[in-house]
């Protein structure tokens, strides 16, 4: 039972902190706790020790620091021990058979990590714990993108994968997510992040280590070599239908930024292998840096994050801008805002995730038809892809939010989510993959250039085909997560009758499947949900009209109405 730390000087609280100091291998954490004890900072200590960090389908993600409610080596070791126990218990309970002839071998776990503070230690600790528990551990040779890990789970026939990353969270955070494969799931779930009930089962095993420190093996795990990257690139380049003329690939001028993450070198190698030789990087953001010094938030969707790339593109007259988040599973795309602008006078705009999702879906449509595969997008994404496919023989699926659901779509050939996530080669990476998506969007731009066209013109044509559509997002960042739950409760209790002067035709509540609400209007919709990875309430807006300017005008009015709705809900009495 979690202690009730009622007062700043509660002896039980101080005892918990001192006990933690004895087991945490990070000496800085002992200094932090000693300081909080000496100052009588009960609030800070309660935030660290009143409970434990929750392990869910997204794994773990939290601020670094001491205590069971922070990311640290004690929490990671206990989590790794729980995962090992879960795998060992499951694989020792028949029937568990694999089509890959590893029925009677120990669980195999691939462990990857990014370049955030603590990631390398967390990954090596995980390898030492699962090895001591009797599993086979395969550790990445260095910081690498998340899609490389997702691909390795499938290619190396692993029963599970662990990726140490907090994706695009602030520098103070880190995280830990889990994939299942081989004997732990079916083909649709192989190399996909966990879903219920696996999260609860792993949590139960982790809880058994809450008062202990798991054994660490001194050796016995395998450190993979650079083939984990070269094999991934070979598979991706083989799987993607890249068909732009080689000369047009070489003639496409690209600017890219890694936003201080781990995608820079892998993207550069991928582009080089594919024949995109006119590639320029934002030098000050190319190398991994866990402090992300040039951006407020290392997320290409955040204001200011793309400024350096946009400036370099304008200076060079680039044809395309590519940006990744720090673990390179998301892709942002920028294009010249006018097809008639000359290179020396170009201005640029960033495409939305829905716009890129539509472009990639259209590009892959012939491949989906040829292979009789399906497409999927989540409930927070635009309906444009669904409308594009409506007149074809390609089946479209709407899934719950997140690639753990999109990737499990039967016969998946393409999946996307508006938050810059695209699965374009699911036989290689059954997750979002910013590297593969970057190759495909670059090849699409080069193929269009060969025909005297551009991505902007292609998008205009698709908008005319599916109906002029504008999408947008409102994010409310909070410091107290309970505020989000309160807002969702109030919105359910006081759903608006109108938005932006239009009647709300239907209110769809996705509970208990997921915490989300949709307000459906005629030719428009608003979805509200908590973020799964950040302390944010997110609102997703879509408006359809007769012309693109009219759609954007309608979106502006809808945005103002939704902000007012959220403000009203925040002012209500609890």
Which structural traits does this protein have?
single chain, about 575 residues, alpha/beta, 5-stranded mixed β-sheet, 18 helices, about 40% helix, disordered N terminus
Short description:
With 574 residues, this protein is α/β, with parallel strands linked by helices. It is 38% helix and 19% strand. The protein is built from 18 helices and 23 strands.
Overview of the structural elements:
The protein has 574 residues and is of the alpha/beta class. Helices cover 38% and strands 19% of the residues. The radius of gyration is 24 Å and the shape is globular. The N terminus is likely disordered.
Shape: globular
DSSP strand (E) fraction? 15-25%
Estimate the helix proportion, in percent: 25-40%
β-strand number: 23
Find the structural class using helix and strand composition: alpha/beta
Catalogue the unreliable spans. Answer: 1-8
Mean pLDDT: 94
The rounded Rg comes to: 24 Å
Spell out the blueprint of helices and strands.
Elements: H1 11-23, H2 27-38, H3 42-49, E1 60-63, H4 73-91, E2 108-113, H5 119-132, E3 136-139, H6 146-155, E4 160-164, E5 173-180, E6 192-193, H7 198-207, E7 222-223, H8 227-239, H9 246-251, E8 254-257, H10 264-274, E9 279-281, H11 307-316, E10 320-324, E11 331-336, E12 348-350, H12 353-371, E13 374-378, H13 384-389, E14 396-399, H14 403-406, E15 412-417, E16 421-423, H15 434-450, H16 455-466, E17 469-477, H17 482-493, E18 498-499, E19 502-503, E20 506-509, E21 517-521, E22 524-530, E23 536-544, H18 548-571
Parallel strand pairs: 2-3, 2-4, 3-7, 8-9, 8-10, 13-14, 13-15
Antiparallel strand pairs: 1-5, 4-5, 5-6, 10-11, 11-12, 15-16, 17-23, 18-19, 20-21, 21-22, 22-23
Helix pairs in contact: 1-2, 1-3, 4-5, 4-7, 10-15, 12-15, 12-16, 17-18
């Amino acid at each position: 039972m979690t202690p009730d730390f009622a007062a700043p000087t509660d002896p039980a609280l101080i005892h918990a902190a001192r006990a933690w100091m004895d087991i945490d291998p990070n000496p800085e954490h002992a200094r932090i706790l000693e300081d909080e004890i000496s100052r009588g900072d009960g609030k800070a200590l309660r935030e660290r020790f009143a409970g434990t960090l929750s392990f869910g389908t997204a794994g773990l993600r939290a601020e670094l620091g001491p205590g069971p409610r922070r990311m640290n080596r004690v929490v990671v070791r206990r989590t790794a021990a729980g995962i090992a126990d879960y795998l060992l218990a499951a694989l020792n309970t028949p029937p568990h058979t694999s089509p890959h002839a590893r029925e009677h071998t120990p669980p195999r776990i691939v462990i990857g990590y990014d370049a955030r503070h603590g990631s390398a230690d967390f990954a090596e600790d995980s390898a030492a714990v699962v090895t001591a528990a009797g599993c086979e551990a395969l550790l990445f040779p260095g910081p690498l993108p998340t899609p490389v890990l997702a691909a390795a789970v499938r290619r190396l026939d692993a029963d599970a994968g662990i990726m140490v990353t907090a994706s695009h969270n602030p520098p103070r955070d880190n995280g830990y997510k889990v994939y299942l494969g081989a004997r732990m799931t079916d083909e649709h779930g192989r190399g996909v992040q966990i879903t219920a009930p696996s999260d609860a089962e792993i949590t139960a095993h982790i809880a058994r280590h809450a008062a202990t420190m798991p054994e660490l093996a001194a050796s016995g795990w395998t450190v993979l070599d650079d083939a984990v990257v070269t094999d991934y690139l070979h598979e991706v380049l083989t799987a993607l239908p890249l068909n732009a003329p080689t000369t047009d690939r070489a003639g496409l001028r690209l600017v890219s930024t890694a936003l201080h993450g781990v995608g820079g070198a892998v993207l550069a190698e991928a582009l080089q292998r594919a024949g995109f030789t006119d590639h320029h990087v934002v030098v000050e953001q190319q190398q991994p840096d866990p402090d992300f010094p040039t951006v407020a938030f290392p997320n290409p969707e955040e204001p200011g994050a793309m400024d350096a790339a946009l400036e370099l593109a304008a200076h060079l007259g680039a044809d395309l801008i590519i940006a990744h988040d720090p673990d390179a599973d998301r892709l942002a795309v920028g294009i010249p805002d006018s097809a008639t602008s000359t290179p020396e006078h170009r201005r640029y705009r960033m495409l939305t995730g829905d716009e890129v999702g539509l472009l990639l879906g259209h590009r892959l449509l012939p491949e989906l038809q040829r292979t009789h595969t399906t497409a999927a997008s989540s409930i927070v994404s635009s309906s444009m892809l669904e409308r594009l496919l409506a007149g074809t023989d390609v089946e479209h699926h709407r899934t719950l939010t997140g690639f753990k659901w999109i990737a499990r779509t039967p016969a998946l050939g393409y999946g996307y989510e508006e938050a810059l996530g695209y699965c374009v080669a699911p036989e290689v990476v059954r997750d979002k993959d910013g590297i593969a998506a970057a190759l495909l969007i670059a090849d699409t731009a080069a193929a269009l250039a060969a025909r005297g066209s551009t991505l902007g013109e292609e998008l205009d044509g698709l908008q005319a085909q599916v109906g002029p559509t504008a999408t947008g997002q409102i994010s409310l960042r909070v410091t107290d997560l309970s505020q989000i739950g309160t807002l969702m409760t109030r919105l359910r209790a006081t759903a608006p009758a109108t938005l932006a002067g239009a009647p709300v035709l239907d209110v769809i509540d996705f509970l208990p499947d997921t915490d989300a609400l949709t307000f459906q209007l005629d030719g428009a919709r608003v979805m509200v949900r908590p973020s799964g990875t950040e302390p944010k309430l997110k609102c997703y807006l879509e408006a359809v009209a007769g012309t693109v300017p009219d759609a954007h005008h309608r979106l502006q009015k809808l945005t103002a109405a939704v902000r007012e709705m959220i403000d009203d809900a925040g002012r209500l009495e609890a």
